[in-house]
């Protein structure tokens, strides 16, 4: 049963429950299913099972007490969808005793083999020992991963590894190892314990960041700082393991979570991470009222008023009103509390909902200069009304400023002066119509925005719409006829870099920006077009700046790696970043100003940035860099996809992602240094990028060998 | 409106109609849509449109009368789903006059650019001139294809190119070219004209078999021979263009098709090819009865009795009973006749329906010897009851033969002879239980089949079930307990090649065959197991033979090519062949017999085959070879996936496909020669293959560098 039918968080969220060993899995699945849980995490073998000693000859030996019979009561798809296997907790592939190590290794292999045979979707693995102290465990997992095609391994990772006691089933021997962890592993700020992230990173780095290895975060009663928790947003977290012991009781005895835990769950729900309840019921809930009163837990919490409305057509009844037989299950109040938290999530905005299918999906940037865009692409961009409202405002203010300046400069006018007797179609207050050129007019949205601005400003405009795509021009022709603008707008089917304008422009309007500002060659195009800008003329935009930040994004790095070539690691991608984490705040990189008065003009750039991590945030992994831009259209009319200043409701651009060939470990309090070049040649422009800290790395995309933008 | 809601032919089939130029495309789409057609094939520009002369300066010139306005009345998805563009028929990129050639080339580029801008799904291109006489046309198409991402080009291909007159819009100049076509292009047998396939092949070969280039077959009143028509089954045919003039009239004046045309349409419907009606209505249908009486056309045709039953829930009303406003449309009787033909197709069998999603989908063969299969894979195989019925029958006959032989050899028995006082659990009529070993027992289906056969034969069996996958053995254990067979069946968790059997076997049963018979190393496994076969013992299977045939399959070749590496061209694939054509009947290749009494045993093989094409079938293209096997389980109990002898309702194996690196042209009456090696080394077995005719080609997969099966 899903926690709530809400389409705004994509897939409905599922909840699981850890159960003891059972010889009758179908019955177990059914009983917890009635209670509300969608899947069970069940041991693969009896707790007492041990693999046969290696001395037993292979010849004819029966396969040991792995022997169980439930496999025949349940079909493959049920196994795959409703059961996650749990590997025995006693397994210690890094035990000091060689015999114990051998037995653990054999048992781990046998259990993983059995789970894969059953076609399970995932298996939960015992927690690793202290960071760097489980090489054999990582080795066995790495070998197993090579043979898997779809079954995922969920490594249990305690958010905090206690330094004073054992975690989970790790016996005494391991404590010593944990206590003797390398000095590089810092304790998590504010909590007495080791950083679970470090243990996770050691294992997954040894497994070469294999995509079937994920983390099941074990949530304890104490939480690390919110800022260090945020690192997990970019990691392949598959589940939260939530012990019932972490719940507290509200006044009426119902299990509820402390505020920090509530926020943790909300954050992971939004990332699509499922929750698994572990341990038995340990809150005495008054039996008869159980189904009616769950939810309103701690004081900050009030039940969603329109609970019923959240249920979609055909949806399952929700926790608050159900009367099914499962409601008497002792774990029912915990499940209902999860429902309550899930349904309380704020509603997702329309724009974000539409973008959901693009989340963490790599797109190669457009090359509008080299290729003609399709009609549908224009159609999509034109739907971004917010962007054109900003352009209209920019043109309006520029026209107003011109009017003010002309009025001031002209002083009192002599109406008989022949200079004022122009034959402009609709003389503005300043006499001469303003010459405005839209360069890269597409299907005409900026022509429309400019005409609107002129009407508002009471200014007469003479517009030139310059567009190199002959197919797009057909649409502008139609617009001019429909709107009655044929007298005011001259249509030019030409490349702005080569066109010979018949008169100078007062205002040059363009929308040539990419996700990284200059990456679709706006600087080169506008440098070419400014030939026909009158002295003192205005370019809209006036300037733009790119921003960069180091980022953790396991998903994107894996997707790039899946291409199995260098080229894709040297290509920047347009991506709606979702499961990601910025290791530090963004910093500005390259700025371009228009018109460009430099002589000679040089659009090549080089800069290096250093990002410093707060030691309290712990170590993290770097997969590449996220890029954004801010653009000054005109004076204080800003157009931005830079998170701190992002223009509201504007969706024309997703961020850009520059990958690194190899993920890089950034120690707690460490620095990330990056160098970026914008290189220009006669027929192409490209970026090169390299890491300078915490370690120097290879320069990516040298000579634009993998990625470039054609001029 | 779909022609009929039938799930058994996969996607519902769609019908289109060619329409004249219209300035109001939405209205055109609507009017033909009411008539029943799902899409229109519409000219991209007015017939009078010509591109601007190249002398006109680019600077500011307006984009010529390509100028149309309907693009703004209809959104992108409507353009994409309901309109196929038609390129002007006057275009002749290979005209003798250089100016005309230049104008044609410019017009073709402009129209393709416009269509791509609109986001159309496909564009119909004018027919090519005689084969080999349109190099510039192919050149322009090839350049255009490089820039396309999803829009398909449908080249109009007349099935027969008339030698006495022009095809379609090709003017006089081209006739001369057609008449002077190279001698290699043979006329199609029985019809006075050139083979349209040759013209198609020339163009698509020059376009390097680009996947966005397909054929729209123009069906004339006369058809080539059925055997030459079959070549198109393996080609990327996207549509049939069916002129109304090809229809004849039945007694009541309704348009119907001759029998040969009916069969042609039926064959292409089954391949998922859509039909486009071209030309105006040219049959005088009695107006009032039009909707009620369509369909029952020529004498061979009787309307499907349960017409209404073929409509799925929520389905559109079908032609016979509709009363919508479109039924008075002059083309309505033609559309209804298409419906009639489509709905008359024979019902697809359950097995083929289940296999529909695997059609023409490349799968890398299993390596069950090297990898352990998953439970689900066993589960799927075990559903093939027909296969196990054949095995049961084979074991039954072998047991019966043993009983007969023993009875004959023993003569009258002395009941006091101590040799007969065995302690077998259930003495059979012949006294001693038969020792039967299942090698590669999996989850036990052959154990079950053998026990059944023994019960039928009244024979006592002592069974050994040998299986190397320890996870599968768990299932057999359960089966033995459930069936009460623990006393009769000994479970052996071991590799048959290394196991030391405690006694010799009378019968050795195995199912180790792959799609090509020996390709999953059945010979090597059984050679290893025959150590413990008693002298005179029986192997089930007794022998198997692989078969090969040259094949046309554009789809599979493209899918292999899409990997962009050599390795995938040197890998055989398991495929449910669908859109394919065998260039000649299959021929046997390698045979293996068990037990193998050769000394020494050598499972390496080499053979070369020559396939001769009937000159009347025309030329064809070779993409690789299709492989099958026939297996003698015991005497006349045959198990086969070889088309002429395929075991009924058996679905465990799809054919195998050996690709060629490059498609090869096979002239009419030509030969296809192929050499195949089965190579064996200590740890692997692999195939190598090469073409010897019509041209010698490189040996594929030398030293098993790309594909091998591990021992």
Automatic annotation (TrEMBL), chains A, B:
GO terms for biological process: methylation; regulation of DNA-templated transcription. InterPro entries: Arg_MeTrfase, Arg_MeTrfase_PRMT5, PRMT5, PRMT5_C, PRMT5_TIM, SAM-dependent_MTases_sf. GO terms for molecular function: protein-arginine N-methyltransferase activity. Residues 406-428 are annotated as: Disordered. GO terms for cellular component: cytosol; nucleus. Keywords: Methyltransferase, S-adenosyl-L-methionine, Transferase. It comes from the Eukaryota. Residues 543-709 form the PRMT5 oligomerisation domain. S-adenosyl-L-methionine binds at residues 378, 387-388, 467, 495-496. Residues 36-343 form the PRMT5 TIM barrel domain. The record marks 381 as: Critical for specifying symmetric addition of methyl groups. Signal peptide: none annotated. Residues 351-540 form the PRMT5 arginine-N-methyltransferase domain. The active site is at 511 (proton donor/acceptor), 520 (proton donor/acceptor). Belongs to the class I-like SAM-binding methyltransferase superfamily. PANTHER family: PROTEIN ARGININE N-METHYLTRANSFERASE 5. This is Protein arginine N-methyltransferase. It comes from Chlamydomonas schloesseri.
